């Protein structure tokens, strides 16, 4: 799995390429914890190239959402494929996290 991090104005955009599962989640969690220490006020996870998310990956999303909320930040997910969207729906993450269809829509709603 490859993790990309870039800035889009004042929004930190993170992309996970590949599978976010029990094999790859330790690295992803470590990178995201380091990112949170920098204190991004607006965080967007772009799932365009994410092929699959397991419960280990969902735990990372929950960690990010909780940390961002605790620190008055804004957290969004965008661009899930059908498989990832189904995992987010079944797990209930779509009801507690802001998931957008496109990166453009998500960025526009950060304000």
Describe this structure in words.
There is one protein chain. This protein is of the alpha/beta class and 111 residues long. It has a single domain (2-110), classed as Transcription Regulator spoIIAA, CATH 3.30.750.24. It is built from five helices and six strands; from the N terminus they run E-E-H-E-E-H-E-H-H-E-H. Strand 1 (2-8) and strand 2 (11-20) form a beta hairpin. Helix 1 packs parallel to helix 2 (55-70).
DSSP helix count?
5
| Quaternary organisation | single chain
CATH topology: Transcription Regulator spoIIAA
Instruction: Indicate the radius of gyration in whole angstroms.
Output: 12 Å
Shape: globular
What characterizes the major β-sheet?
6 strands, mixed
> Total domains, how many?
1
Structural class: alpha/beta
Strand/helix succession: EEHEEHEHHEH
Outline of this structure?
This protein is α/β, with parallel strands linked by helices and about 110 residues long.
């Amino acid at each position: 799995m490859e993790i990309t991090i870039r800035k889009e104005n004042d929004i930190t955009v993170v992309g996970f390429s590949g599978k976010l599962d029990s094999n790859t989640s330790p690295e992803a969690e470590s990178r995201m914890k380091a990112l949170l220490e920098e204190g991004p006020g607006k965080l967007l996870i772009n799932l365009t190239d994410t092929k699959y998310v397991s419960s280990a990956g969902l735990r990372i999303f929950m960690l990010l959402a909780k940390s961002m909320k605790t620190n008055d930040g804004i957290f969004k997910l965008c661009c899930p494929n059908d498989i990832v969207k189904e995992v987010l729906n079944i797990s209930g993450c779509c009801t507690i996290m802001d998931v957008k269809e496109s990166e453009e829509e998500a960025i526009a709603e950060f304000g």
